Structure formats: structure tokens, C-alpha cells
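Notebook B, p. 112. Complex prediction, attempt 2.
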Amino acid sequence: MKNGQLITIQNLIKDYPVGRGFFRALNDINLTIGEGEFAGLIGPSGSGKTTLLNIIGSLDVPTKGEAKVLGQSIGNLNTRQSAKLRNHSLGFIFQTYNLLPVYNVFENVELPLLLLKMSKDERRKLVDQALDWVGLQDKRKSRPPQLSGGECQRVSIARAMVKSPQIVLADEPTANLDAKNSHNILQTMEKLNEELKTTFIFATHDDKVIQYLHRKISLDDGHVVNDEQIKKQ
Amino acid sequence: MISFIIKGLMRDRHRSLFPIIMVTIGVFITVFFQAFMGGFLTDMVDSTARFSSGHVKIMSRAYADNSDQVPNDLALTGVNKIMDDLKRDYPKMDWVKRIQYGGLLDIPDENGETRSQATVAGMGVDLLSPGSSELKTLNISNSVVSGRLPENPGEILVSDDMAKRLGVNLGENATLISSSMYGSMAIYNFTIVGTIRFGIEMMDRGAIITDIGDIQLALNMEDATGEILGYLPEGAYNDIEAQKIVDSFNAKYTNDENEFTPVMATLRSVSGLSDYLDLANNMGATIAFVFVIIMSIVLWNAGLLGGLRRYGEVGVRLAIGERKRHIYLSLIYESVFIGLVGTVIGTTIGLTGAYFMQKYGLDLSGAMKNVNMMIPLVFKSKITPATFYIGFFPGLGATMLGTALAGVGIYRRQTASLFKELET
């Protein structure tokens, strides 16, 4: 990692087999994303933004080229190493929240810490802190079916942030939310980005998200067609 | 992490309660069916052995050649010596004399004229000797419907159904009209002291039970008997053991050409049950095996579906950095827990059902009025050592296998694909 660059992508190509041929989802992508960025991969459906997000999240591997995340080449990681990378350094926020319905808010947020071999007291402290960040202390005993969509997504953010990862990957995080809840969520994430210097990378085509981004990386048909830094006042 | 998994298991009824219920039902059916089939298949052999053939049967050669006619004129003679020899040579076996006979049972009115009459199939057994095993072998005490067992010579039991047909009461006289060993007419008066029901239609239609001493007297068969039956010490028929005894007994008479020479035969060869015995030996296991396979497929699918419906959870756990192997093992441990609990409960319920079925049975006498085979009308199960463990094959094995296969799907799927499924 040099000069605070968390993610370096060079000449990245991703093909998926289709019948006897293949479909090129990403074509010659070159990118760097630095510490504390609030960036978005934007573009229409099928433009390759989720594929790129999956590769950054070590959920998928490049066909050609290189994707380095926190100094580790994603294509060269074995399953144990990629699991370790996700466990220690990456957080995920999903469009459909994906909270586990039989566990309460506290337990859902605590889940990532269970793999980090922390004591119960340490876990409780970190979960409390994460719930403070998203303003859900009063809902700690509630289960996901008892929460609104906005509250569920805030739990999802707390779950992604609880281990203080360096990078949070959010795939269409506001797709299932109304405008008011979307703004609340985005403000929460923006605040966490500013205060904790966590890097946020979105995959989205939602204008509500786009207006919050500090950097817009536009994708179309697997190519980066525009990469624009936005100056925030 | 373990307490996290246990919490999830306890709270999610789709992961715990419902699979446990499914395993329980599957195991219960398997265990009960195995015991029922075991009971059903051995009951017929057992009934035949007790009432008709013994585990081995000794007859005269001539009697054996015409045994379907029960020809008492060809009966064994010098029976007391034969019995002494048998008890000496095969002391562990239980040896009993039996005389089967047919005839008319005449019920007289107060003037001595015939009031009612019926054809009977009689059986002369040792009822009066102290320590006679026949009461137990034929389960006579428990089969008495009214009255009592014969305690004195000249007392008989008649089938309850026939007693009703004849309109005869306890304590009344009945005259047996039959033919003696020498072919002459035999007439003998008895007193009816009890009615009996064996639960075997063929017997219950027209049986009378007399003491063998009485019938020897009535049919002029002193020191003679139609058949001598032998029962193996374990109480269950064993083809190999029975054949050994038959071979050793018959070897003594190989060179004797006399048609009244005793000859011994196994249950298999005299009862017409040889095919049935093969069926009982092979089919019981085969049917149980097929049933176990069917239940295994059902429970395997349940395990498979249980695993598949948790793809979402798997995706989240992968996202937080849990390794696939760890997730896979936790699914297997869960299935072992579910399988064990379900199997223990299912086996307990199955054994309880089988126990009551073994004790009380299922009475199908109403549906089998015209059966001429030695089939018990009360179907009973039989609990064997296999009944205790057979449920573990579908209950634990198949549940675990189903989960393992579902888990392999998770294991082999690209992580990104699992995430895609997470979003749908």
C-alpha cells in the first residue's frame, strides 16, 4: 500500500462463461481508491458495478489483471486468506439488509465479532458503540421483523462498522428505502466516514446516493467511462 | 459461536422443531414398521409350531405319508418308550404327545336325544399332568373365555364360537362320535367345563380340547399317539438346529423298513411353510431395508431443503469472514443434533407403540372369518434388538447425509453466486 491507497486495480478483466463462449463483465479497469474516500461505482444495470464491488470484497476473482486490496492481491488469495480479509478489514451493507431474523439487534451486530475471538465484555462495548453510531440503542432487544426498513438498514450499517473495518462496501443500500430513510442512512454513513475515516464504496444508480458521493466512478458496459471527484463544501 | 448457533437453533422452529418432528415421525414409522413386520412374519410360524407342527414332529412313516388326513389308524405305538428315549437323548427339548382327530360332537337334551350337533376338529393334549408345558405352549389359560380348565378326566374345552352355535352351557354333557384307532366307531361322553378362543379362525371355528389320556381312552389309543412334537429350548424355530436333531433321530431308523417306524421332520418340511419361512427370513429384512431407504430419502430431502433455505444466512456469514469449512461443519453438527433428538424421540415412541402392539395386538378377527390357514387373528409386533437401533439409519444417517449434500452445494458454489442468491 502506498500513499494511503487501499485499493489498486490494474488492467482488470472479468469474464463469465456463457454457453460455449463468455460474457465480459469488466474490461480493462484501472482504479485506485484511497483511505477515507466516500466513493461510488455508478451506472445502469449490467454496467459491471456489482461485479467490481464483489472483486474488491474478495467474493470473486479477476479473470485477468490485478486487484489489490489492502496490499493483498485478490486473485492470489486462498479461501482462508480471503475469509480473513473480509473478517478483519471489510464490512458489507446489502440492499435487502440480510439481517438474521431469529437474532435480536444486539446479536446481529455482535455476529462479526464472534469470529474475532473477543471477550464478551469487549464485544458488548463495541456493539454498544456501533448502536450509538446508528442511534439504535433503544432497539437492541428487538428482532428484525419488528423494525422498519430504515432501522433494519441502520442495524446492517452497525454490523458492517462494529469491527471498525477499513473499507465498507455497500451494494444499492437505499434501494428498498423511502427518501427520508435513504437520507438518514446516507447521513449516518457520511458521518461515520468523516469521523472514523472509514472508506465507503457504493455500487448504485440511485440519485439520492449519488448526491452524497465525494467521488463518482461511472461504469458502462464494463468500462470506467468517467471518474469524477466532487468537492464538498 | 457455539452459543450463537444454539440460540439460532432454539429460536428458529424451521431449523429445530419442524425437522425434529419430521425425523421423529420418520423414525417412529420405521421402528414401528420393523417391529410389526417382525411380529407378523414370525406369528404365523409360531402359531403353526404351537398348534400343529412343533419345531420338529415325529410320526409313523405311514402317518407321515398321509398326514393331511390325520390317520390315527397309522399312529405311533409304544409311545411311552419313545418319549423316554427322546427325553434322554435330547434333554433340552420339550417333547409333547398330540392326537388330532375329527368327529361329531353331539349335545343331548334332557331325554338323551340329540339337541344339536356339529363337526369338530379335536386336539388331545396333556392337560392334567403336573408341570405339563402344553398349557403354556397353547396359551390355554389365557384363551379360556368362560368356565375353567379341565381338572379331571372326562372334562373338555370347546371353542366359544361353536358353543354359541350349539347353544351349549357349561357343565352340560357332550358326546364325541369318532372312529377308533382300529377303525371302529368310538363314542365317548365328556363334560364341557369351559369355552375357549385362540384367536385363530381355523381353530376357533370348531375346536375341542381334550386331555390326551381321555382321547387315548376314547379312541383306543393306549400307549399310542398320532404325533409327538418337539420344541427347541429357545422357543423360536431355528432351521439349522431343527435339522440337526432330525438327522440324528432319523439316522437310528434308516435301516428299518417298518411303516410304523417313527420318523422325524422339521417344521419347514411338514407345515407347508418352507416358502413362507424363506420369506420370513429374507423378506422381513428386505422390507425393513426398503422402508429404511424410503424414509432415508424423505429425511435426506428434508436435510437438503433445510440446508438450501439457509443460503441467505450462509451468505451473511461468509460476508463477515466465516470460512466455508466452518459453516459447513456447523451445519453438520446441527443436523447431528436434530437427527439424534428426533431419532431418540421417534425410537421411544415407536418402541412404545410396538410394545403395546406386542402386548395387546391388533384384532382383525372380524375381517378374517373364512380363513383356513393357521394365521393369528390378532396381529402382534415383535421387538427385537434391531428395533432399538434401526431408526438411527434414517434418523441420524439420512438427515446428516442430506445436510452434507446441501452443504456441498454451498461449499462448491462460487462465493459471489451465494451473494447473488442472498439478494434474491
